[in-house]
Amino acid sequence: MAATTTPRPRSPSAKGPLAPAERWFKARGWKPFPFQREVWDAYLAGDSGLIHAATGTGKTYAAWMGPVLEWMAEFPKGAPAKPPPPLRILWITPLRALAADTEAALLAPLTELGLPWTLQSRTGDTSAKIRSRQRTRLPTALVTTPESLALLLSRDDARTLFADLRAVIVDEWHELMGTKRGVQTELALARLRSWRPQMRTWGLSATIGNLDDAREALLGATPGRPPGRVVRGLVPKNIVVDALIPPRIERFPWAGHLGTQMLPQVVDAIEEGETAIVFTNTRSQTEIWYQALLEARPDWAGLIALHHGSLDRAKRDWVEDGLRSGKLRCVVATSSLDLGVDFSPVDRVLQIGSPKGVARLLQRAGRSGHRPGAVSRVTCVPTNVLELIEVAAARDGVEAIAVESRLPVERPLDLLAQHVVTVALGGGFLPDELLAEVRTTGAYAGLLDDEWRWVLDFVTRGGDALRAYPEFQRVVVDDETGRYLVRDKGVARRHRMSIGTIVSDASIAVQYLRGARLGTVEESFVARLNPGDRFVFAGKPLEFVRVRDMTAWVRRTTNTKGLIPRWMGARMPLSGELAASLRARLEEASRGEFRGPEMQAIRPILDVQARWSRIPRADELLIERVKTREGHHLFIFPFEGRLVHEGLAALFAYRISRLTPISFTFSMNDYGMELLSPEAAPLDAALKAGLLSAHNLLQDVPASLNATEMARRQFREIARVAGLVFQGFPHAGKSVKQLQASSGLFFDVFTRYDPGNLLVSQAHREVLERQLESSRLGRTLERLAAGNVVITNPKRTPPLAFPLLVDRTRNAVTSESVTDRVQRMKLVLEKYADTGK
DNA sequence: GACCTGCTGCGGTATG
């Protein structure tokens, strides 16, 4: 390169307040991104805000350097080395594993810039040494989880602990927001802000549909607070969504979700890259695919692994290390690998089965190409013909950045009760002051005076029903000062041990007779086993020996043919965004337009659908009437996700049965539902009578299935969070069955003797919102009522309906329970209406 | 053509 005499202009910030950060970046051959400078400037100006950017694009240092620069500006000539400054920065993350990782990443600038700081994660490394040190003094910067933060707030010296706090950074805020863990974080932030009004809050988030809501929830509803920034980092990386196309579509199944027919293509795809993650939707599916891959490629033994939430932590850590170091060629995983440590060597991501949502697919795609500017690619593997449409729809969603929203949780009173006890422990409170503080959170901004009084009564006297039991009088009022306090040592201990909002599923451990724990399976699975039975778990063929102490003892065997455990997890419905894209793709197909390789491939099947019945347009509700030996089937296709269809099926059955006595058997999936009856249902009359009307929703919708029983089950979480049931000491804990039994007892007692109990109404509300997606259900009915109904009478079961037919044989829901549901729905709706929501 | 779906996450006592 020719020498040039032109002097380079000095960077304007070379001497400014950002200089140390610029120097630090330069030393590593980096250059700050404009958004990083923007955040630093905003921080130094005293602003709070939200940064949204993809992972691996420098948002960590965007958030971290603000407080670092502030400190350096305070000591232009160098800070005194000793003693290290007290807690200034709190870094909140939803994952223990992330805490350790973050700690390592943040340490480098501290040492290189010569800051006399201490930095520790309270979680992650749970060694007794760090714990006891933190009991006396906290580090300058602390990486922690929402639960650990709540524990800190329960210390009686909480206020002095945070006396020097300058900044709180909440990592992965999109993950927390929309859950009770997020609300717990909001409450903690409100507490900290009341002590440190100048404190700055920065959130880090992936792209979601409602970033402004996310910022509001994070920054709180304090009157007169500055609006706060939303800083956009490097977001739309190049993301490629493609698919493995079945070689012979006419031989590809019309139903099913395993997808092992695609094994050869998946093996080829794994071979193309250095390291791959194969995502599946369920835990049992990872076990099945792991075995299948091993069978296809025995030479991959030791090079492939599996990862899901029921595997022992040690095993998962081993897998994550193998992925990070590049020792593993392929890991089959559930969303347990969605978040967390950065696996830079991963260059191939496959998704088996429906992606379910745009955000979810983006998250998974982002696990590859984990460097700024790199291309992220995800390859979808259909497990049945119809999923090809979902792939095309998901790509549309990714291209249009039609990412799902995370809706904030509104005033959960179980968590408020927990928080009130935490604060009573952490120095005590005066009711009016705490109420004002709680109302500065987004979640409780609309908290009613009555609700607040009810919560106070609940923690001090146990509410109306438990008045007679001293153990529920957890908080007492000091006669002289009027402060609410916890005096009882046992109450304090039990409370600290049950802080948090996560309620575990029923499970029992699986362990070698002499040796390592493998993970956990459900009690119901073990109950089916006899000694000597074989099953495959954690990728290992095992022989069941016996159950003792909540542990299933096993020994190794060689025969890989055996049962595979199944876990009853939540049912993820197709997201509203993806469902809309799906309807749009069908609409195109109905006009004879087949864009892209997936739609081209599925064309023969959709031709069958069109010949036998019809391909519905986006504004059409397709209803297929089919008569078989089994009876009269109605197949109805709103394309709104399984949960909504569950509610709709119950509603439709109820409305039809009001016209004529008739009983139905149901099945549903993400596309629609089947109502099967021995006689033909009076469909036309029902439509005329308002089958699809959203009008009488509040009277007609039981909002559904076995609502009381569902609420009763939901109450387990509420009872746990509110502190009604104590889980017991670690390792000697109560079984989940016991917990379910005692929380069920509370539910029954409250329902009968304490009709005003607000936790019971909360259980009903949570069932409606979470398990039945009632607001989406209402919107769906409005959409259906505004569109056209198209009824066809196919001779045979067409492709769209076929999976419903298969599904029903698996788990039939009879309309016996519908009658019960309908009876109960009025109760539910009255309660729902009572809460004013 | 008659065919196996159901995720993730945290925290904690006591020690004669």
TrEMBL record:
Gene Ontology BP annotations: DNA repair
Keyword Transcription among UniProt keywords: no
Keyword terms: ATP-binding, DNA damage, DNA repair, DNA-binding, Helicase, Hydrolase, Isomerase, Nucleotide-binding
Ranges of residues in domain Helicase C-terminal: 262-409
Domain Helicase ATP-binding: 40-226
Enzyme class: hydrolase
GO molecular function terms listed in the Swiss-Prot or TrEMBL record: ATP binding; ATP hydrolysis activity; DNA binding; helicase activity
Entries under InterPro entries matching the protein: ATP-dep_Helicase, DEAD/DEAH_box_helicase_dom, DEXH_lig_assoc, Helicase_ATP-bd, Helicase_C-like, Lhr-like, Lhr-like_DEAD/DEAH_assoc, Lhr_WH_dom
Keyword hit for Cell cycle: no
Stored SUPFAM superfamilies: P-loop containing nucleoside triphosphate hydrolases
PROSITE patterns: HELICASE_ATP_BIND_1 (PS51192), HELICASE_CTER (PS51194)
Enzyme Commission code(s) on record: 3.6.4.-
Highest taxon listed in the record's lineage: Bacteria
CDD domains according to UniProt: SF2_C_LHR
Sequence similarity: Belongs to the Lhr helicase family. Lhr-Core subfamily.
PANTHER family (UniProt xref): ATP-DEPENDENT HELICASE LHR-RELATED-RELATED, LARGE ATP-DEPENDENT HELICASE-RELATED PROTEIN
Name this polypeptide is given: ATP-dependent Lhr-like helicase
